[in-house]
Amino acid sequence: MPIPTVAFQGERGAFSEEAAYKLLGRRIRILPEDSFAATFEAVVSGKARYCLVPIENTLAGSVYENYDLLLENKLHIIAEVNLRVVHNLMAFRETTLANLRQVYSHPVALAQCSRFFARHPQVEKIPFYDTAGSVKMLAERSRGAGRGAAAIASRTAAAVYRARILKTHLEDHHENFTRFLLLSKDARVRPAANKVSVVFSTRNVPGALFKCLSVFALRDIDLTKLESRPLRGRPWEYFFYLDFKGHVREERSKNALAHLGEIANLLRVLGCYKSAAR
Fold first, then answer.
1. Which CATH number fits domain 195-273: 3.40.50.1100, 3.30.70.260, 3.40.50.2000, 3.40.50.300?
2. Residues 44-102: pLDDT tens digits?
3. Which DSSP state fits 275?
4. pLDDT tens for each residue of 125-138
5. Is 178 a catalytic residue?
6. What is the pLDDT of residue 232?
7. CB neighbours of 95 closer than 8 A, spacing ≥ 6?
8. Across the chain, how many H-helices and E-strands are there?
9. Helix or strand or coil: residue 210?
10. S-S: 128 plus which of 60, 134, 177, 242, CB 3.0-4.6 Å?
11. What's the average model confidence in pLDDT over 182-211?
């Protein structure tokens, strides 16, 4: 079998790369992209077979841009993976905890390590466009004036750029997980699939959303997530993204989706796949 190429947003060593290895193993080619839009486009254009994108974090919440891109691109969710986010402090050459003065990372990562910075008030937090990108930047300047500067990123980033890990588990909360979706141009539904993702819109009338959700309640189908996003060009109207437990070939799931299709203005099944282990 040919080795698949997996696109993700960020530099080499990003948490998305770590999640790709966790889900698919090491026999993959990885394709870093500058933006989430470019990550989707890599699959649409055929440059990559899959893309792996974060959709929600247990602390920071949903990644709204990727919800919008799910609707804009005709890709299918074929798998998901939950990654435990471990923030590691890493540096090069002569930088140690004793002479540490600056720490670079993505603003979300910096915010998730507030206790570390409270214990080290002399250390300046410097926001950077990407966690792994901050390590890459320090690696490129390590031959120059890099003393006293470090980055917060994944263990994979430390391996890619050969950085020394000064301290691990900087995150304030250990219950820090990111859920990633694996997307493909081709729909693939396996017998073991037990989760369905859909997007729908309704008329802006009283009780419309209640009627849509009731098609699942009437059949004792468990909803695991509901997210709303603005319907562009239609102020105060929304798309609703919904995940539920089931399989598209099960009788009750088929009946619920058929019923929802009769009520909703728009209904699209985004994927049927196996739920990631919690």
1. 3.30.70.260
2. 999 999 999 999 999 989 999 999 999 999 999 999 999 999 999 999 988 999 999 99
3. P
4. 999 999 999 999 99
5. yes
6. 82
7. 146, 147, 148, 149, 150, 166
8. 9, 15
9. helix
10. 134
11. 94
Length of the chain: 278
Closest CA to 73 of 234, 270, 264: 270
Instruction: Parse the chain into domains and list their residue ranges.
Output: 5-85+176-184, 88-167, 195-273
Does this model's pTM top 0.90? My answer is yes
Here the tokens at position 60 are 């920071």
Catalytic residue among 180, 239, 240, 244: 180
Out of 39, 95, 131, 178, which one is annotated catalytic?
178
Amino acid at 227: E
**CATH 3.40.50.2300 fits domain 5-85+176-184:** no
Residue 278, pLDDT above cutoff 80: no
Whether 240 is a known active-site residue: answer no
CATH architecture of 88-167: 3-Layer(aba) Sandwich (3.40)
Going by the DSSP 8-state scheme, the letter that residue 276 receives in this structure is P
